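Work Package 4 report. The design task specified in the project plan requires that, given a folded chain encoded as structure tokens, an amino acid be chosen for each position. We show below one input record used in the internal validation round.
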């Protein structure tokens, strides 16, 4: 390409398309280099720590994006066929409902028709959502908005259920219809270390228009992710990770001790003193242990009794009584929540023990901002711990030259990160040694000073596919620990 004299920000005329692309690339690189010293001058020690961590994690994201998920082609075809039938059934049901109350047929893909139906015809109070394109708020028609309508107004329930069922089936079927690589039949998504406020990895469609959000795949879809012959899928996850983080952040010795046992059983017995059977029914089909699990998680994140009662489908008084007993057993959690709120109101900024810094731009006196800030600490901390653990695992595996060679040749190794868990494709030969090494190296300790070191334990599951082991999926993931051997379903 000939040397071109350029004015800042001006693309010269007379260049070929290829030369224009080259100029654009040069400008991108030059502007980035110009911005670097400016950005560094604005960065503090926390920013630099986070930047260094995300640079390490970027290599994991690139590796996962490149490898993708191996799939069983016949299982994919069967799943797509089932999803097509479900979409057709949901659409027929929606049309049947609409004919009964509204003459036009309702297109579930049309947000204009859905908006008009719920807000102009049924006259339901609007659920507002912000449109980033128009920079204005509008009456909501996405999943969150429709779920709020369904929970608040029984008359909307059959219509919302049909619309969401149709959309979900069409979306998943579309992923597999156009999302698999033509030759390898792998599902490849794009993982990114940025894009979330908490530091959690994000995943989405890759630059070739294939893939989806791999971190939201349900068990039914995960079943079609199948290890090729000679390999298995290993799935290590951090045990009650966010609960551990809540315990250490709130400086609650009793809650930390509960995390080291069966957390939800221990919580149930602390909240309801004298309780003998935690699996006895607390309310309708919800056991005391269920209530301790779901109620405890919501209470940790500043959920109000009214809101939690609505989502758990129980009476508000029951949740209020539970929270009173819960904070009686773990008063440090309530104190920690108030400390976070005070920090937001005074500085609007939080820093995790690993140095991830976040500025909250919402109103400091708004409960929405308070809940986001309280949830940020545990979620962000666990995200960074998981990513650091995965980096440690990859570093160890790459030192084992035989394993590294086998994994590189077969696109094995790390294939997914799911917030507090990771998915690996590893060879059956030497699998026990690799599994034990993953469990050891994925633990990333965090020093909490006088409280000691938080080392969240990891659990391992293995299988021939990524779904859970069930009667209709004997090859799915089952619990594994060192010494168990490698016993997999058919």
């Amino acid at each position: 390409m000939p040397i071109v004299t350029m004015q800042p920000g001006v693309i010269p005329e007379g260049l070929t398309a290829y030369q224009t692309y080259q100029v654009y690339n040069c400008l991108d690189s030059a502007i980035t280099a110009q911005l670097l010293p400016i950005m560094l001058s604005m960065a503090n020690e926390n920013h630099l720590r986070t930047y260094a961590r995300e640079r390490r994690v970027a290599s994991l994201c690139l590796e996962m994006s490149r490898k993708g998920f191996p799939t069983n082609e016949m299982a994919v075809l069967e799943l797509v066929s089932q999803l097509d039938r479900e979409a057709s059934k949901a659409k027929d049901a929606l049309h049947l409902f609409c004919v009964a109350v509204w003459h036009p047929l309702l297109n579930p893909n049309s947000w204009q028709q859905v908006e008009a139906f719920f807000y102009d015809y049924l006259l339901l109070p609007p659920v507002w959502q912000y449109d980033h394109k128009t920079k204005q708020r509008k009456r909501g028609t996405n999943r969150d908005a429709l779920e709020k309508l369904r929970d608040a107004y029984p008359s909307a329930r059959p219509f919302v259920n049909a619309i969401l069922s149709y959309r979900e089936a069409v979306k998943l079927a579309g992923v597999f219809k156009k999302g698999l690589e033509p030759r390898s039949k792998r599902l490849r998504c794009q993982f990114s270390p940025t894009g979330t406020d908490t530091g959690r990895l994000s995943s989405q469609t890759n630059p070739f228009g294939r893939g989806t959000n791999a971190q939201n795949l349900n068990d039914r879809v995960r079943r079609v992710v199948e290890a090729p012959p000679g390999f298995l899928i290993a799935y290590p996850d951090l045990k009650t990770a966010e609960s551990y983080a809540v315990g250490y952040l709130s400086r609650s010795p009793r809650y930390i001790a509960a995390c080291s046992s069966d957390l939800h059983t221990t919580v149930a017995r602390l909240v309801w003193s004298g309780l003998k059977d935690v699996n006895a029914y607390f309310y309708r089909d919800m056991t005391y242990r269920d209530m301790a699990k779901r109620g405890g998680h919501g209470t940790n994140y500043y959920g109000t009794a009214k809101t939690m009662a609505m989502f758990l489908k129980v009476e508000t008084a029951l949740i209020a009584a539970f929270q009173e007993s819960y904070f009686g057993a773990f008063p440090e959690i309530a104190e920690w929540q108030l400390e976070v709120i005070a920090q937001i109101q005074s500085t609007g900024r939080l820093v995790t023990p690993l140095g991830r810094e976040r500025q909250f731009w919402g109103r400091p006196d708004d409960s929405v901002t308070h809940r986001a800030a309280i949830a940020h600490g545990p979620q962000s901390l666990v995200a960074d711990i998981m990513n650091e653990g995965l980096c440690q695992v990859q570093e160890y595996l790459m030192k084992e030259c035989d394993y590294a060679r086998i994994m590189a040749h077969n696109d094995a190794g790390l294939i997914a990160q799911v917030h507090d868990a990771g998915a690996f494709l590893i060879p059956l030969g030497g699998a026990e040694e690799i599994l034990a090494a993953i469990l050891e190296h994925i633990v990333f300790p965090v020093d909490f000073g006088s409280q000691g070191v938080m080392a969240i334990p990891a659990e391992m599951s293995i299988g021939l596919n990524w779904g859970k082991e069930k009667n209709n999926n004997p090859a799915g993931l089952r619990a594994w620990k060192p010494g168990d051997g490698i016993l997999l379903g058919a």
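The radius of gyration is 25 Å. Validation will be extended to a larger panel in the next phase.
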